[in-house]
TrEMBL record:
Domain Calcineurin-like phosphoesterase: residue ranges: 6-205
The name this protein goes by in its record: Calcineurin-like phosphoesterase domain-containing protein
Sorted UniProt keywords: Cell inner membrane, Cell membrane, Manganese, Membrane, Metal-binding
UniProt GO MF annotations: metal ion binding; UDP-2,3-diacylglucosamine hydrolase activity
Membrane-spanning residues: none
One Pfam family it belongs to: Metallophos
Top-level taxon of the source organism: Bacteria
Keyword Acetylation: no
GO cellular component: membrane
Positions in coiled-coil regions: none
Organism: Acetomicrobium mobile (strain ATCC BAA-54 / DSM 13181 / JCM 12221 / NGA) (Anaerobaculum mobile)
Amino acid sequence: MKTFYRSVFISDTHLGSRWCQAQKLVSFLKNVRCERLYLVGDLLESKKAMKTSSWSRSQIEVFNQIHLKSLEGRVVYVPGNHDYCMRDFIGRQFGNLEVQPHAVHRTADGKRMLVLHGDQFDKAVSLSPWVTRLGDLAYNGALWLNLWVNKLRHWLGMSYWPISQFLKHEVKTFIQMLSAFEKLLQREAKRHRCDGVICGHIHRPAINHMGDVLYVNCGDWVESCSAVVEHEDGSFEILYRRDVKKPAFEAKASFKVTYPAFSEPIPLGLVSMLAE
């Protein structure tokens, strides 16, 4: 039986990336019901999405689950820096799915929460593209290291250790110190006269207070496999899906869509599905 939450927030799924934990995300989406689903940026990888029409079955099923959620309630999509192609559709609405640069969510207990991806407040992205590129290469290298280290740990009978997440957190913490990421988000929430902010981008799930502003980060579906949910009393909780095992083999399926309003294969079926 599905668990009901008033609202569900997910970010940084990075569909199209080999590191996306799509099967775990599908399992999560299948087991929750909600009035509102927020896609808080980096749903997919724009560069890879525009180059391929072949998707794993689990990734296709993510789109199917989003489609079902749009039939059950409201879906708000706030694009991030990795799915920048979707920013061309900001202000458009497709059935119950709307694409917005940011959103203001009102909780059950009356709090106003600013919902945005957060990349616009990361100075490493906005001021130094080459630093971002170097960071992406280092992160991919860390994920490869994570893969082989944990294969060895499994063979030795040891538990899983997210080495790439540890390394990434140390780097991201340094970047946050330089760019004052959380402080800028706090200021932005106040500028919008909100009581808190819900974001993604740094792949670090968190719920904490920064002064009188509530800071909520959804985490990601690359390593943390986390989402933030709002209960019926307006409180927030981080949920994880680490216990769901990904199949050893996933068959590939052809997934090419056409939508007469667009001249290029974006948004790779997401809009096409939801507009049906």
